[in-house]
Amino acid sequence: MLRHPAEHFFWIHYLCTMSTKNQVQTLMGRYTDELKAIGEKVLEGRRISETEGLILFEKGSLSLLGALANFVREKLHGDKTYFNRNFHIEPTNVCVFACNFCSYSRLYAHRDEGWELTMQQMLDVVKGYDGQPVTEVHIVGGVHPKMNIHFFAELLQKIKLHRPDLHIKGFTAVELDYMFRKAKLTTEEGMKLLHAAGLDSLPGGGAEIFAPEIRNQISADKVDGDGWLNIHATAHRLGMHSNATMLYGHIENYAHRINHMSRLRDLQDETKGFNTFIPLKFRNKQNEMSHVPESSIAEDMKMYAVARIFMDNFPHLKAYWPMLGRQNAQLTLSFGVNDMDGTIDDSTKIYSMAGSEEQNPSLTTEQLVTLIKQVHRKPVERDTLYNVLRDYSTEEVSTH
Questions:
Q1: What local confidence, expressed as pLDDT, does residue 126 receive?
Q2: Tell me: the pLDDT tens digits for 277-301?
Q3: 161 with 219: CB under 8 angstroms?
Q4: CA-based torsion, 30, 32, 33, 34: positive or negative
Q5: Full-model pTM
Q6: List of domains in the chain
C-alpha cells in the first residue's frame, strides 16, 4: 500500500528506471509462468485477451504491472507528458437524472439548490479568456429539460463566431441522448446538427460501467452502454474525435472493468476515433453511495497500469489530476499515463462538489509544467487532437 508521499516518489523513481525490455524481463523472472507469458506478449506488442487482462488485475503485483505499463508508455511516447490549456463551462448542475454516485447534480425538482447559466453568462465566460492562449473549452453539465439541442446549437454558433480558433469539446453521451430524444432526432441527425453548429469533439463522460447489472444499480435511468457506444461511433463516422472513460472503484468487479475496456477497444478497432482513455475514480462524498469505500492508491495505480496494457489501440491514457490530487497524478506517470489533462484555468465546480482531492482545481501552465518536470518527464503542450504546440522540456515557462 502507498500511504506516504515519500513512497510515491520511491515508486516513481523505481519504475522510471524499468523502461527497457531486458530490465522488465529480468523483473518478470520472479513471477509465475502464467504472468511471464502475458508479460512477454506485452513486450512483443501483441494484444492480450480479456482473460489475460483479468489475470493481471487478480494476480499481477504492482511492480510488475507498473513496469509493463511504463514500458508500453515509453514505447509510445518516451518521457513526453501532454497537457493543454483549457477552461470549463458548466451550464447547469440541474439534472433530470438521479445517479447514485453523483455528488454534483441537483434534481430538476430541487433546481433552486443549483445553478442555471444563461446563454449570455456562458458567452461571458468565453470572453473572459480573450487574449489568453487557451485552446479548448470543455462544456459539460447536468441534463436540464429547458436547455435543448437548439439552445446549445445557438451557443456553439456564438462561441465560434466570437472565437473561431477555440476547439469546442462538449456534451456527454448522456446529455446528447436526452437532447436527441427530446427533439425527436436520430443520433446521426442530432450529431450532424451540433457538428455543423461548431461542436468539434466529445468528452468521454457518462460511460460509467457498461455492464447492465452494475449500471442499473448506479444509473438506471440514463442512456445505456449500447447507446453510449452508438453516439460515439456516430461522431467518429462524421469525422469527429472523442474520449472514453470508465468509472471504477465502486460496486463493480475486475471482470466488469475488463468487459468495459474490451467494448471500447472493439469500437476503436472499427472507427479509430478515440483520442484517449480516462479511468475515473469513484468518490463517495455527498452522494447515495457514501457507504461504499473508495479505492486505495495502490488500486488506482493498478487500474491505470492494466488500462495502458489492455487498451493497446488507444494512443493516450489520461489522469485527471483534480480528482486524484497532484502527487497521485504524478505517480500515474509511471503507471502508463502520458496525459495530465489541462490547466483547467477556472473555478470549475464539478470536481470540488464530487469530492475531489483538489478543492481549488486550477493550475497555471507554469505549475503544471513544474509538476511534470518534478518526476523527470517532459511537459508538452498539445491541442485537443494531440498536435504539439510547445515543448517545455528544455525551456522555462512564462506565467503569461
A1: 97
A2: 999 998 866 666 777 788 899 999 9
A3: no
A4: negative
A5: 0.89
A6: 80-391 (3.20.20.70)
